[in-house]
Automatic annotation (TrEMBL):
Pfam families: Pterin_4a (PF01329). Its EC number is 4.2.1.96. The keyword ATP-binding does not apply. It catalyses: (4aS,6R)-4a-hydroxy-L-erythro-5,6,7,8-tetrahydrobiopterin = (6R)-L-erythro-6,7-dihydrobiopterin + H2O. The keyword Lyase applies. GO terms for biological process: tetrahydrobiopterin biosynthetic process. It comes from Parvularcula bermudensis (strain ATCC BAA-594 / HTCC2503 / KCTC 12087). Belongs to the pterin-4-alpha-carbinolamine dehydratase family. Signal peptide: none annotated. Keywords: Lyase. This is Putative pterin-4-alpha-carbinolamine dehydratase. It is an enzyme of class 4 (lyase).
């Protein structure tokens, strides 16, 4: 697994405005807001199943209707193509 190339990360971020780079580490994060907790948790459940299949897991938190997600790849200590793959999947589920 390689780190994401400078070109690929630039393109991904331009095409996926939900995601922004995190200060101080090579990671990206996004915040999603739902009508209620059940919708937020359903979103998380779909992501959890996909993450487990990919063996690639998000850092995340949930407070009622809000879900905050940070993606990075521990194995490369930074962003990799797995992060953009999972982020693109997450965006398709997003409200
Ligand atoms: C042992 C296991 O395969 C690894 O720790 C996997 C699990 N999930 C992971 N998730 C993320 N985000 N990065 C990893 O490098 C990673 N590695």
């Amino acid at each position: 697994m390689d780190k994401l190339s400078a070109e690929d990360r630039k393109r991904f971020l331009a095409d996926h405005p939900n995601w922004t780079l995190v200060d101080g580490r090579d990671a990206m994060s996004a915040s999603f807001r739902f009508e209620n907790f059940i919708d937020a948790f359903g979103f998380m459940t779909q992501i959890a199943l996909r993450a487990e299949k990919m063996d690639h897991h998000p850092e995340w938190s949930n407070v009622y209707n809000k879900v905050e997600i940070t993606l990075t790849t521990h194995d490369v200590d930074g962003l990799s193509p797995r992060d953009t793959e999972l982020a693109a999947f997450i965006d398709k589920l997003a409200p």
